[in-house]
Amino acid sequence: MLQLVAGSETTATNLSGTLLHIITNARVLQRLRNEMDAAVSSGKISRPVIQTSEAKQLPYLQACLREGMRANVPLSTGFAKVVPKGGDTLAGKYVPGGTQVFQNTRGVMRNKDVFGEDVDNYRPERWLDDESEGKETKRGEQIMRMLKDIDLNFGYGKWG
Fold first, then answer.
1. Which of 19, 30, 91, 150 has the fewest CB within 10 Å, making it most exposed?
2. Is the backbone peptide bond immediately before 48 cis, with ω within 30 degrees of 0?
3. 23-44 burial string, b = 16+ CB within 10 Å, else e?
4. Other CB atoms closer than 10 Å to residue 90's CB: what's the count?
């Protein structure tokens, strides 16, 4: 029961923040509406309730959700990791085994080296390949790095 309550709170907080970003940004809202209207018109999504498998086929919707996970971090410290027996080196410093390590997830999601100079802006386009202008390989690698960082919201990472 505790897990259900905890998960529902972070999910609700994230979705509320994501929806706020979408509805207060006319450009994002219009692009998302256009994608969804086109999918409805072509019969690519069910009515009245879209299926998960169908939602996954809408690239801009997925970009909005991913950007929401980045912009609305559900937990500021993430999940504790315990350094394995024998210790390890983090950022060039030795950390003894058994030490609990946390990350500042909000800080990770604002890393300009990963997410770009405009990290303080809600910009779903950062998640799309079409932004690359012919740099598909590099862009694909960048998106994979961003996805790995987003996964930190769910406890992904070393000593997972």
1. 91
2. yes
3. eebeebeebbeebbeebeeeee
4. 13
Residues 6+ apart with CB under 8 A from 61: 32, 35, 36, 55
Beta bridge partners of 121: none
**Largest separation between any pair of C-alpha atoms in the chain:** 59
Encode pLDDT of 73-116 as tens digits.
Answer: 877 676 788 899 999 998 899 999 999 988 888 888 999 999 99
- Asked if residues 123 and 67 have their Cβ atoms less than 8 Å apart, the reply is yes
Pair 101, 125: CB distance under 8 Å: no
Structure tokens at 63: 């970009």
Helical H segments across 26-111, by residue range: 26-41, 52-55, 59-71, 105-108
**What six digits make up the tokens of 140?**
């694909």
Q: CA dihedral defined by 149, 114, 106, 79, rounded to 10 degrees? A: 20
- Nearest CA to 28 among 2, 57, 65? 65
Please count the other Cβ atoms lying within 10 Å of the Cβ belonging to residue 129: 12
